[in-house]
Amino acid sequence: MLRPLPVSDRARQRGQGMVEYGLILALVAVVVIVVLTQLGTAIQGKFTQIVGALK
Question: Model pTM?
Fold first, then answer.
């Protein structure tokens, strides 16, 4: 039977901190993607209006 290796509290906290940073980074990436998608749609609509006005 395998026993888990002893891990110090400091190492465990460091690992937890890295996981938290990773989760925050993932959340920021999702927000950026959503904002850019919405902004891209709005910009496309404006270009369509401009092209329509030029015709």
Answer: 0.59
